Structure formats: structure tokens, C-alpha cells
Amino acid sequence: MDGKTLEYKGEEALNELEKLTAKASDIQESILKEILKRNSATEYLSKYMEGSIDVEKYKKTVPVITYEGIQPYIQRIANGEDSSVISGHPITEFLISSGTSGGEPRLMPSIAEDLDRRTYLYNLIMPIMNQYIPGLDKGKAMQLLFVKSEMLTPSGLPARPVLTSYYKSPHFSRRAAGSFNDLTSPTEAILCPDALQSMYCQLLAGLIHRHCVLRLGAVFASALLRSIRFLERHWPDFVADIRRGIPGSIVSDPSCRSAMTAMLDAPNPLLADEVQRICSGGSEEEGRSWRGILRRLWPKARFIEAVLTGSMAQYVPALEFYGGGIPLVCTMYASSECYFGVNLRPLSDPAEVTYTLLPNLGFFEFLPLVSWPARRSWAKEDEEVVDGGMLVDLVDVKIGACYELVVTTFAGLYRYRVGDVLQVAGFHNQAPQFKFICRQNVVLSIDSDKTNEDDLHKGMIAAKKLVESRDLLLVEYTSYADTLTIPGHYVLFWEIVSTANGMNTMISLDPKLFESCCIAVEDSLSYVYRRCRSKDKSLGPLEIRVVELGTFEALMDLFISQGGSINQYKTPRCIDSADALKLLNSRVRACFFSPHEPAWSPNM
Ligand code: AMP
């Protein structure tokens, strides 16, 4: 990948994609050869490879690992030892993953050229979109992007989230002007370390440019929704700023202030009136609610872009509510370990989204999850050690089968289990297209039951149907294994709003409805859960605790105050921190329990 590849546009980018996917097998092999050529002399690889760069030997001898397998090496480099412990090229920074090990964040190695790889993938997105929605280069994008503060390792290397690294890089600041890169947000606002000011300035900039915004988005749907809800509560401040032509006192960071002052330029009562009318009104048929507000505020927006798959899928109804029919688009799949791929059919429904892994970004292998999805069990469920011989190459995965993604990167991860479960939905040329199923990281367990994120999500879908039939929307949820009761039981914290009378209306809670939600969730949980509950009696009735509006924002604030990043933030689907639990419990409006045991029969 050379400098030329950084600025792919239109046709050229699409041709490149065709070539890459047509030769996925050859490209994967040459990527692995290149990684071995560069890194076989590292301490880590030479233990297994003894200097060899033979691809078959690699697949036979190098173990499949989780973070624990590489953590000691990473720690040594963070403490000052040479990068050659794991990488043939200097490690320039560590990327803080949202995955944790033993409560600690995971640090992923990164080398200078990784920024080229990330930029390369970003530059493919708009040419793909432009095939379906032309003319996107004729206006601006309101992309709400956030950084978080970074730290230095004892050896002086930066450790920060991957998006912070990217937004602070010259690859982002020196992106070609115009074309698809014209953002409403001033760079000063994106780089502002104060998340609230950053959000305020970016929303204000989006409103100022409302007539030329062609697309809206954030990296994760959660950050976008948080911003919309902030606007919903504080829109009069934005109107006042636009009317006076001066940013409000919340904008105190000097560089943000000067950027926003320049952007506001002069009092604009016309624009202020427009925004005021839209935010205060809503149409009669919308019940004067914020339903469809995004379409009214940004009338030329052609799509809303955010990650809406995996744990973000729960935000789809809320974004549909605010979006008023603007298509929701998921464009890419990436992580701190490695960027993976793109969605070649970006206008597909979020529930149908597939990602095509790009064979030149890293070496990808797949651990088959044998009885998945029928029985939702892992191939080697409780085993730490996975036989490397079980792994399948990128082009050899089978349609319909589920796999855990395993990566080998230039920066020094070798056969590393990412923890994501993917299902093969089809192929584009030789390259498989994957549906993101879940991340293997959330497990509720009280007895022999084990509930992962995907199981929980299925339960939520069942219960959501019941609340939605009453014009209520489940906007956020998390769970907790309450083992203080005897027997222990699952607790779900729910934040719900009324869609009929506007998002901020206080709703009355019908016990019958919420009891039927409890049982709907339990009925859709796993066989073992239902057996524990109905036969073994080792689990008590599932409980739903409905919390006050804004509780999950307060939860997000809590995690951010403890060092989390706003744009990598994902609501934890299971709470294990005492602080977070205290916060949730302090805001409970009402509790409801399953009125009877879930259906269970020994024959499944
Ligand atoms: P992080 O390492 O904190 O950047 O988080 C990366 C993880 O976020 C991935 O391993 C996935 O579990 C999740 N993720 C990233 N992109 C997507 C996507 N498009 N759909 C679903 N989950 C995603």
C-alpha cells in the first residue's frame, strides 16, 4: 500500500475492490508471507517458527490465542523493551480496545503504516455510497466525531482509542479538501477533549450548515442518539447562539470558541427562527413530538451513517423515530486490533447488513462454531486452548456457518481471537460477506445457565414487540445477575419512552404489560436457562426494573468519567461495577417480576 492508495476516489476505488475480492485467496497468502518476512525474527514468532517464513508451518505451529497470550509481551514493550519482541517494525502507539481483560483495558499494538491501512478503508466508503446515492460530494457531512484524552505508557508511547489516534493524525487533518471529506464540524471541535463542548460545537455547526448537509452520522449509533437527545433538551441555547451570532458560555475552550465564533460570523435571526420553529413544533400529525426531527432539521440529508449492527442494533428503532424515514446505513466493520471490511450494499436494512472483509488489511482465519447458530454453543466452549488446525482460511468459510474471527496483523498479533461471532451470508467474488452476530463478551451466569449478548438481545426483541404495541419504546437496557436473592435471578434495567406523546413524556407503567415482558424474555432465553428456572429451580423469576428517563446517559457519563471514550462507548449489556449498579438502582421507578415459570420441556 503506497501513498497513491490514500486518496482513492470513485471508479478507481471500486475497481480496486473488484480486484481485491476476485483474488482474495492469493492476496491473503501474500499478506501472511509479508507479515512473516517482516516479523519472523521477533521473539514471539521465532519461538514457534525458528526463523522460517513458511506459511504452512505458521498454521501448524503458532498457537491460537486470546489477549492473555500476548499481554505479557505487550506489557514489556509498554514498559520500554524493544518492539522486536513482537513486531519487525517499531510500535508507534498502543490502541486501547473497548474489550477488557480482568477489568483492565486491552492494549493493541500499532505501527506507523497502520494509519495508511485505516485511511485506505475510510476512502473506500464514499465511492461505495456514491454508487447508490450520487452527488454526495456536492455538500457537507454532519459527522459527530469525538476524541478522548490519551495516556503514555511507561516507555513514553501513546495509548489511546483507535479513533482518537486517527482524528489526531495527519491522515485526518490533511485529508483532501472538498469531495467527500467536507465535514460541518470544525477540527477544533472534534479534537476538543471536553466531550460536552465538543458535542455542543458539532451540533451547532451542523445547524448552521443545515441546508447543505447531505448526510448525518457518528461512528456508533449510541453517540449519535446521545447527541440528538442533548439537542432535544437544549435546543433553545443553540437558537440563542445563532440569533446573537456568538457561541454561548458553554463553549469556553479557546480554540473551539474561536472556530465557532468565526463560523457563526454574524447574528442570523432567520436561521434562528427556522430552527426554533422546527424544534418547538413538530407537525400536527407527528403529535408535535420529535418524531422525524432529523429530516426537518436537515432536509437534504440522504442517509444516517452509524454502526447499527451487533450491540448497536437496539438503537435502530430510536434512530428510525428521529430520522423520519432517512435511510440508516452501516458502512464498515473495524476494531482496534485491525480494520476488517466494508458493507458493499449500504442501503440494505440494518438487520440484513453484511461486511465484506478486505483481504489486504490483515490475515484472517476463522474458528468454526460447530453447532452455532442452532444451539448457540461454542466449538470449544470452555477450553482456553484451541487447536490451530481447526481454523479455516478466509475463502474457505461456508455459507450459513458461524465463526469466531481470528487475526494476524503486521503490528504483532498472531492468530489472535477477536471475540466476534460472524456468520457467512454470501460471497462477493472470492471474498466472503459476514453478518455480525455478536461479541462473545457478555455472559450472565448464576447456575449452569450462560446467557450471552445475543441471547439477551433476542429476549429484548420479544419483549419490545409487547411494549411497542402500546406506543412505548425501549430505548436502552442492561442486565445484572442478582445473586443476593435466593435463588439468584436476572435483573434487567429498562429505560422506556412514549412514542405517542413525545419522547419526554412521563408514562404510566402497567404491571400486566411489564410482567408479560418478563415472561417473554424468559421464554426466549436458552434451554439451560429455562431448565434451571423451571426444573432445577436454581433461578428465581426474572425482574425488570424500569428506570427514569436519562438514566442511561448518566450511566454513560459515569463510564466516561472513569476513562471511557464517548465515541467508542457501548452500553454494557451486563453490569458488574458497584458504582454503575448503585446509579441504576437509585433511579428505579418500578420493579416487575415474571408471574410464572417459562416454558420448558426436556425435549427442547
Ligand atoms: P474496539 O476494539 O473498542 O474498537 O471495538 C471493536 C469491536 O466493536 C469489534 O470487535 C466489534 O465487536 C465491535 N464492532 C465494530 N464495528 C462493528 C460493526 N460494524 N458492527 C458490529 N460491531 C462492531
UniProtKB/TrEMBL annotation:
Residues 355-439 form the GH3 middle domain. InterPro entries: GH3, GH3_C, GH3_M. Residues 455-577 form the GH3 C-terminal domain. It comes from the Eukaryota. Keywords: Ligase. One of its GO terms (molecular function) is acid-amino acid ligase activity. GO terms for cellular component: cytoplasm. Belongs to the IAA-amido conjugating enzyme family. This is Putative indole-3-acetic acid-amido synthetase GH3.11. It comes from Apostasia shenzhenica.
